[in-house]
Amino acid sequence: CGFELERHAERHLRSRVQLAQRYPADTLAATLDVAACCDFSLDELTYEYPEEVVPAGETPSSYLRRLTYEDSNWRYPQGVPARVQQQVDKELALIAELGYEKYFLTVYDIVRFARSRHILCQGRGSAANSAVCYCLGVTEVDPDQSTLLFERFISKERNEPPDIDVDFEHERREEVIQYLYQRYGRDRAALTATVISYRTRSALRDVGKALGFDAALIEQVANNHQWWDGKGIQPERLQELGLDPNELRLRQWQELSRTLIGFPRHLSQHTGGFVIAKGALCRMVPIENASMPDRSVIQWDKDDLDALGLLKVDVLALGMLTALRKALDFIGQQRGHAFELQDIPKEDKATYDMICEADTIGVFQIESRAQMSMLPRLRPREFYDLVVEVALVRPGPIQGGMVHPYLERREIHRRDPSAITYPPRLEAALQRTLGVPIFQEQVMQIVVLAAGFTPGEADELRRSMAAWRRKGGVHKFKDKVIQGMVANQYEQAFAEQIFNQIQGFGEYGFPESHAASFALLVYASAWVKCHEPAAFLAGLLNAQPLGFYSPSQLVQDARRHGVEVRPPDVMESHWDCTLEGRPTSSVGTARRAQAGRQASVTRDDQAAVRLGLRLVAGLSRQAADRIVRAREQALFTDVDDLARRADLDQGDMRALAAGDALMSLSGHRRQQVWEASALHRAPLLLREAPVEEDWLTLPQAPEGEEIVFDYVSLGLTLRRHPLALLRPKLAAQRLSTAQDLRDFPGGRLVRACGIVTVRQQPATASGVIFVTLEDETGTVNVVVWTHVRDRFRQALLQARLLAVYGVWQREGEVRHLIAHYLRDLTPLLGSLATTSRDFH
What we know:
Strand content: 5-15%
Structural class: alpha/beta
Strand order of the largest sheet: 1-2-7-4-3-6-5
Oligomer: single chain
Number of helices: 39
Largest sheet: 7 strands, mixed
Distance between the termini: 46 Å
């Protein structure tokens, strides 16, 4: 039993009676003498901030103040605005009063390290409400250009440390994490944990395995439960697989799986929550080694740590920062000087024109179907419009019924700004969103202005809103809100209406500071796409996996925007995608024509994008690096020279041939594959010996075969789109192209067909599935309502080539195909391998 395995290791305290039964009376009495000699208080376990961040001769307060003032001059070289200076002084006073200086200095040190290594980073969340964070370079939202609510970040009433989230380039975040371990030691720094609970599929898998079901059957049953089926086991899913859900063992499987759903399964690493302490963390919290090397993890989640008041910094990874850094580096190389985020021109008209047209594939945050549908309706023309756009397509505004009122008032404001009116004293809170509350900060401002709350009390209300469904915490503020508003001369009915709106806002309210931080990246990525599409594509491809769209879709979109994309080639390519100048002779053009690659209209002001060897399936980074190093010594003369000098085995050569990357040495793909397969690794002494043998010349493959191999190896093709080859068959079935649909009037019955590239079910869509189809002329956005989804479930789930019959919906620039009937045409693709990105 457990007692025999580990004697005297019980995890509980015995009663006096139990102790008296086990130990002599004099021994028990002696414990009281020992206790009397102990001078200890639980307060001694209080968390203490690290001290390394404060230099000798400085106090935390003086050092933070000095850094803030010095860096404010860097932020405002023309002089710090009086409003900002006043805000900075107010924040520094509160930070000193609450003793949070070391926390700010710790975050500053992390950001300083990242910037010293040229790692792009940006703070977000409630920290963007802080002028001090902006001056220190932690956040990028200018307090002089925004409405700050510092109490959203720190307040006396909350009595807990602030929480600063900082995004770093996802490829280089590990450098930041290892810096923290090196600076503070593994015993004083650790990542927080997160509790992973059972969901439908994981419960089915674990219970099925425990009950001894066949592994293949377990996967079939688990995979047949989709995200839109909700939380729970669906007997219909078993019936679809030819199983009887009422059979005893299957019924047991279902019932036990239902019991597990929501129950904790295991601990995992938090996405980036980092705790740093003055002393050893193991004295306060349980620590374990992570599965990843050189990492430690606290065995508690972030909520447990918040309750203890431990310093937590979220060191987060953001792929768009990686893509932007690489794109900006490309722009700098093209222009001959460094080009940074702050060098991007502000409020560029062409960028906003592109955004209004929903031409935003690849653009941060506004590339989803819902966002792209909103853009032509909201028509952003300035930065704050992007802040609203980011926040508006969120659960809170949607479920709170704020989207349509905001759009209606925006249209009224366009025609006559004076027609928009506001309740007394609430204009300051509601003017920026035309009277429709969208942000958490606005709720706080409303209760301060109308109900007499202090800023700290308003933040307590905000925090309780996030938990009202679980604890009913928001109701304790009902009387205070209503009575406060009535005391300020508001009607009782209006006060109750305001409280009901606050309650409806619930846990879904979006922070304005967070939206503003994201809007900066929205604008930056949109500007790069608009003005430097080649650098934008190269940056996105080098940061994959990222965003909604696959490399194939990104390449197709860039080519439609005039970017020339060149195939991977051992004579030109590096591991990453690179930019190249325009060809100076007809050689490159002739080779592309010989290979059947599609010519397109290109922009003269843009470099060409050379695809990197990273896209070649089956080729390692190490092999690619050896190719580049050998090529720098001398160009390769043939495939044998390549294999010998780059030390490539037959697997490497076959991968390169399958990816059509040996064209410069061997010609068309069939010849490449033949020559790569004919190579043998000779002993070292014989590698220089000439080999005399006849060489076979093969005919070039037809275009369809080439396209199939492109998708197998690269996941994309630079030749004609696959549907261009199928168009005669599709036209015979009266299936229109995406280009044809764009010109159709709304309300028309249409038929369309395309390769499925995206399936998405937003949490607020009530079971509706959004599908994106791609053909040789563009994309079609399809809306699949729940009754159609359930009727054509298998086609919706499994089709790679999908035909849709339905009604074409057109409202201005917003176009959708409302599906009535779905048909799986995947057999027409033959062996063509395509994939979709599915989100929920």
